[in-house]
Amino acid sequence: MAGKFINEDFLLQTKTAKRLYYDYAENTPIYDYHCHLPAEKIAADHCFENITQAWLYSDHYKWRAMRTNGIDERYCTGGASDWEKFQKWALTVPFTLRNPLYHWTHLELKRYFGIDELLTPDTAKEIYEHCSKMLRSPEFNVKNLLRKMNVKFICTTEGPLNNLEEHKKIKQQDFEISVHAAFRPDRCLAVENPAGFNQFLDELEKASNVQITTFDDLLAAIKKRHDYFHQNGCRLSDYGLETAHAQDYTQNQIKTIFDKIRKGAELNRQQSLELKSAMMYEFALMDYQSGWVMQLHLGALRNNNTRMLETLGSDTGFDSIGDFEIAKPLAKFLDRLDTDNKLTKTILYNLNPTDNALMATMIGNFQDGSCPGKLQHGPAWWFLDQKDGIEKQIETLSNMGLLSRFVGMTTDSRSFLSFVRHEYFRRILCNIIGNDVQSNLLPDDISLLGEMVQNICYNNARNYFDMTCGD
Questions:
Q1: What is the pLDDT of residues 132-151, one digit of tens each?
Q2: Per-residue confidence at 468, pLDDT binned at 50, 70, 90?
């Protein structure tokens, strides 16, 4: 029956898979070490007025699907009413068959709201009213939404200018779920736009109380913000890059290049790469000195639609997978740090699926025995966090690394309803292992396999990151 689509056997094809999921994975807490949730909504214990606000206000996955389905922008990011937007999403959902959005949509309806019906134009009104009524009740404020999914830890992504006041408020509230920040200085690396770069530096001067006229001044200002984040519980950095930066340079070259751009002049391509390489190295040293984990999200080709970028801004659904050279610059970047014995724990994420094996083998080059899985091949991310992408990342890491030491899934999401993605990942993981047992590729030892599943789902991440967790 259509109403039983999300049933207890969803994605689980063998008896072993079902046992692994229900005995070892299902009730394991969630440690979400990378997301884009707005901390201010957690601090305010926000209640959404309706399901559209929770689902469609910041979800570029859904916007892309709606545009592809011929829905006008007015119903995605424009001025249509919340009901009209939901109605257009309900019209689109039947066309998302075999897209992960179809799975996520019905998992979220089931887990958060107890709805078994498929979302269609015919069921839209009833589902909209039912979910919206529940969301307006105190039992469905954002903190309770997190509790409902057994979340123990969240790490949001914040720029260096963030004063972390919302994170401080959350800590003062004695919220039992740990909420930390990750330090993301991407704007500092955007040197192709001198005006935007200098605007950021002017804002950084105010935030750090450091006048920035030289490259050393910039490093001093970033270090002050880095220290400030550390004092407020941050133990991760995060970079969204096309590729790693590892050009050779001299200190005199960097001084000259920085002076040039600080005066508003444009850099040529070589100068841009040298300046970004210097910043990446120095920022990575700060991470090492502070004992942080460094995350590198590599391979996104961003803001491809100029017209829509000018209309809507970034992060609105006009990015794609890129095909940049990654192996050589990444190896050189990591090797320089390792040569100085200053390479911190590092997670490498690839957006292009052709780079799976690249990443899985790259991490093996710099494991040093100081801790299990010091370098990690990050979970399937963004365009890859669907069934096929998750399976291929797991298979590649299994073949070329140690799956048992994997730190597992993150939501990488702006939605408080997205934590079913951990269930999605866990079911896929258990199904892969179950199929291997059935094919006699793994021993039928439920205790051995179950321990691995629990470690991947929670324990490895909890042990890997030096941050308090509410368990």
A1: 999 999 999 999 999 999 99
A2: low
Share of the chain above pLDDT 90, in %: 97
Provide the CB-side half-sphere exposure for 19 (13 A, CA). 15
Q: Decide if pLDDT at 1 tops 90.
A: no
The 10 Å Cβ neighbour count of residue 187 is: 17
Question: 259-282: per-residue pLDDT in tens?
Answer: 999 999 999 999 999 999 999 999
Q: What pLDDT is attached to residue 2?
A: 47
Q: C-alpha distances in angstroms, 4 versus 106, 121, 219?
A: 10, 18, 57
Residue 468, token pair as written in the block: 């308090």
Length of the chain as a residue count? 471
Dist. CA 182–CA 456, nearest whole Å: 21
Q: Give yes or no for a contact between 236 and 33, defined as CB atoms under 8 angstroms apart.
A: yes
Angstrom distance (rounded) from CA 29 to CA 148:
11
380 Cβ neighbours under 8 A, 6+ residues apart? 386, 389, 390, 392, 393
The pLDDT of residue 315 is: 87
Give the SS3 label for residue 296. Answer: strand
For the chain, give me the number of helices (H) and strands (E)? 20, 9
Question: What proportions of the chain, in percent to the nearest 5, are helix, strand and coil?
Answer: 55, 10, 35
Tokens of 326: 């990654």
Q: How confident is the model at residue 466 (pLDDT cuts 50, 70, 90)?
A: confident
* Domains along the chain with CATH numbers: 47-139 (1.10.2020.10), 148-464 (3.20.20.140)
pLDDT above 90: residue 71: yes
For 401-406, which contacts have Cβ atoms below 8 Å and span 24 or more sequence positions?
A: 401/360, 401/363, 401/364, 401/377, 402/373, 403/452, 403/456, 404/452, 404/455, 404/456, 405/372, 405/373, 405/376, 405/455, 405/460, 406/373, 406/376, 406/377, 406/379, 406/456, 406/460
* Cα distance between residue 422 and residue 18, in whole Å: 16
Beta bridge partners of 347: 295, 376
